[in-house]
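Researcher: Next sequence.
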Amino acid sequence: MSAIAWLSKKLDDGRIICEACKHECTLKEGEYGICAIRKVENGVLNLLTYGLAAAVHINRIEKQPVFHLMPGSRVLSIGTIGCNFSCKFCENYDFSQYPKENDYKIDGRKLSPQEAVDLALAYECESIAYTYNEPATYFEYCYDTAKLAHEAGLKNIYATSGYETAVAIDLIAPFVDIMVIDIKSSNDTFYNDLCGASLQPVLDTIRYAHSKGIRIEATTPLIPEHNDSDEAIRAIGTFIADLDPSIPWHLMPFKPMYKMLNIGQTPAETLRRAYDIGKKTGLHYVYIKNPEAEGCDTASCHGCA
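Model: Next structure:
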């Protein structure tokens, strides 16, 4: 399916600039954006995956991970193919990188915004999560679904790498109940080399979303010898704490994946060390998935801790 990617603007020279993410691809007829699912056709920018879900699952909300909104509730998680990042460690590379690695082929099951809402209600979900790949790339599909979900009394969870433009955030803010934003590293070289992106736009997105009153939970995958030093961990924790110490920070274990199969998984001691560093930065809520660290993967009240 395809629909006009209306979050875009035509320039005087006939090119079209995409305003969904901070790559702000400027495209001529027939060209694709970095995401590989937004393409100029017949003088307009089209979203080629509108109404096509590549992944549809029902999960507990904590899997997003979201710990500070309706704990224990059910969420309908959806995503498409395509992504504006090219992370070499992506867990969902079979979705996110699919069109880039398959000559721009489009895939997915038909699922209109209304059908997504109806499905969530039928399975007694209390929210819809836009996840698995970057929702900024399928912004118009996400926006239409989130608006209908909001009107139906469902919550909306927007899981992102943090590359939205301010105009995209402004548009979707009335319907989003929480943004789960990945801070992959405190180092711009990491972002350049491993993600095909930059750090500063992510930090700017987090600050802007927070200024709009959007609830945030942050995540960081800890990759051995890449972003797991004390200094790197402390820098991220300090950034979050300086912005708002009540923002939850989820420290995620890395498993060998995609183009980083030669890197070992995150040791439990690294996760525990990162947890201690995060707490020392002043953050009220730091969580890790670590069976050896009792209580570090369960929501707790800062006032009672």
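Model: The chain has a mean pLDDT of 95. The longest helix spans residues 230-243.
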